[in-house]
Design brief:
heterodimer, A: about 290 residues, ABC transporter involved in vitamin B12 uptake, BtuC, 11 helices, B: Rossmann fold, 6-stranded mixed β-sheet, 4-stranded antiparallel β-sheet
Chain lengths: ~290, ~230
Amino acid sequence: MTKFIDLTLNGISTGAIYAVVALALVLIWRATRIVNFAQGAMLMITTFIASSVIDSSGSYWLGFAVALASGLVLGAVVERVLIRRVEGGPPLNAVIVALGLLILLEAVAGMIWGNTPRSFPPAFSIQGYDIGGTRVLFAPNDTFIVLVVIGVALALTVLFRWTSIGLKMRAAAFRPEVARMLGVRVGRMLTLGWALAALVGSLAGVLVAPSIFVGPNQFDPILVFGFTAAVLGGLDSFAGAAVGGILLGLALSYVSGYEGSSLVTLAALVILVAVLMIRPGGLFSSTQERRV
Amino acid sequence: MAILEIEKLTTDYGPVRAVDDVTLAVEQGSITAVLGANGAGKTTLLRTISGLERPTEGRVLLDGEDLLGVRVEDIVRRGLAHVPEGRGVIAELTTEENLRLGGLWRGAETAALGDIYELFPPLRERRSELAASLSGGERQMLSIGRALMATPRVLLLDEPSLGLAPIVTAQIMQLISTFAGERGLAVLLVEQNARSALSIADRGVVLNVGRVVADGPAGELAADEDLQTAYLGF
């Protein structure tokens, strides 16, 4: 029973991180109708930057802030310089550009920071809470992560559903030409979408870094898990992405605890394929299939 | 005076000349119908006016100011709204979101929405439903209502009768005629349905393979049988 509780708690905290990555993917999807496979590499870069800042300044929160700011800038630059050229073309073009960017960023990071993974400090204590004399597998840092996920999911939902900027971003994503005829500055909306998504991605990077270390290829599985979580929740829903992340975290935690950790990635891919075959719109969506 | 002037406008799609040396003017508070068969260049003419296509030659003047080089998203800010052909509504947004979108650039608020619902009562009933669920007539009302949210002085309408039942077409035409009369709106109306367009238009222009082949008062065009059999398929 203790094992089950520990696995559940562990599933929630790791799932919350998948949820943040999923939120970033959903955000880009909703803002530009592109699945950003370079998301993992982009958050790797911003986490490396945070790591360098923390090392030289000694302040965790300064590194945290710099990571978010650099995410914002990186997202905007990537959209302006690379993605702008393939927007409106066949979706495959954007996917290939994103994959190219992934390889490029990983190579560049290896050249700058080296290929040996380095440790990264957590925001709060990772010493589990003491409940009735036993330490549970859930620490103040995990509480922080779960609160961040809930906060980000709520903020993005409000932004997209209730604000004028959100309405313009959705219009720009669905029908760019019509949106322009209605006076929406579509280019600006797309840049904003990428900047915000990269900001959320960089948040996921600093949250996950303490448990996986920072290295050029260290974040690849996180992208796979985040993508699975996003598909699980339906690519169009922020709440779905958050819940999908937690569900995936739980499932993988049980697989890892009861069957062995070597099966985790395989289990994630099985879940991804199963969802795509049985409910391609995600667990919570009522819409039909979509193109990726 | 003419609020919208089109001078010697020519637009090419690669080797194909879609609009060929077209000159016309639309007076404030009047309706000009642009008629012609499929492929006559009517839609391209509208797309060139609103900046979606670049003309090879010629110019478009709004209130005497050249629109060439003005970005699409800025043209609506100058007072020209374009209701595109067919499915111009954004199906993934609700009726009300579509409407609000039309007035966002000028910070239009709830009062403006009320005006549109007054004009098109069916839209009020379906305000929170996705535009995808609207009927053809309701979509057309939504496209026109959304354009009016921008309080334009010139309205370009591309085939408002497309796919609509005759009785719905008649209602839409009646409304367009009212806007021009009461709000002083200049309307450039592109139609394949020449009979209903000429019934409300002040002036008619007939295009054939991109060129103007007739231009005159609507009544005269409606009475010209040779023209009708040659170009309008009455």
